[in-house]
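Deviation from plan, reported transparently: iron/sulfur cluster complex.
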Amino acid sequence: MQNQSTEIRHDWQLTEILQLFTLPFNELIFKAQTLHRHYFNPNEIQLSSLLNIKTGKCSEDCAYCSQSAHFKTALESEPLMPTEAIVAAAKQAKAKGATRFCMGAAWRSPKIKDFTQLLEVIIAIKQLELETCMTLGMLNATQAQQLKAAGLDYYNHNLDTSSDYYKNIVTTHSYQERLDTLAEVQKANIKLCCGGIIGMGESVEDRADLLRHLANLPKHPESVPINLLIPIAGTPLENSQAVDSFDLVRCIAVARILMPTSYVRLSAGRSEMADTLQALCFLAGANSIFYGDKLLTTNNAEITHDKQLLDRLGLNSTVQ
Ligand code: SAM
Ligand code: DTB
Ligand code: SF4
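Because the crystal trials were delayed, the predicted structure below was used instead.
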């Protein structure tokens, strides 16, 4: 085995990443855990809470999504929530122990008519001493700068899969458009939250290519969410094959090795995961979770259960 390097790299090759994926499991976890300990306290975990502030009727056709207008799902659509209701939810999340409040909107990109309210929401939530994150779809340079000026800490915009496989998942926007938004967010000096989904029928090469794109950005995303597909009835991916648990753990470990200073978030799918699997993901380098009974439109692991799990593992929540 090569000596463990703690260097931060932005020049990862696909073949090197594939080699990591094929390491014996124990070797891979050891590498990931060693790097994790070099850069982080291994007993700390960051907690983010989510709120969907605009639900459904999205013009995009992302094959996994309950909120696309292209598919007939059971979801009831809702317009942008009033500021007071969003702020009230943020207060509750803080009271329950979250350090970051993430707001999602089912848009291709935010509309001018809603933008002033979004800025007002950021200002109000910053006053609660919570970190703010938004995910609103594609942004142009001016929008990114305005969000930054209002005090937005993080912007979430996922690449979701490899550049090749993306065409099988979304046809209404391109991978390049996703990359363009990531560039605007980083240029505006907003911290980036960017990751993907596993379980959409992609290959190991696709997972490696997704992580390669993330790790070779000019600056690593500060937060890297790894979502396990939640199959939604009515979407093209409703009957996707379940992912082997060890493949999920491998993906987390490789993300940790490639981006050793980033928070790797074990994201969607935790409500269906055994505690033992989640513990293995934390061992592989995941150090952030979505905390709260709901994700955007689906149920998350329950807060009471999560509190017990963190307690049983001696994991403390941290302010990033
Ligand atoms: N419209 C914005 C966008 O596309 O960036 C923001 C909302 S979108 C729902 C945010 C992310 O949630 C997606 O990029 C995807 O990674 C994740 N996501 C959505 N539906 C999911 C599902 N059924 N299972 C797992 N992850 C999902
Ligand atoms: C991310 O990577 N995962 C979150 C957040 N960013 C916005 C969303 C997960 C959504 C899961 C399906 C749903 O609840 O609709
Ligand atoms: Fe869902 Fe976002 Fe795609 Fe719209 S753009 S369908 S909200 S993932």
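The pocket of S-adenosylmethionine (ligand 1) is lined by residues 64-65, 104, 106-107, 135, 137, 157-158, 160, 197, 227, 229-230, 232, 268, 296 (CB under 6 Å). We consider this an acceptable substitute for the interim report.
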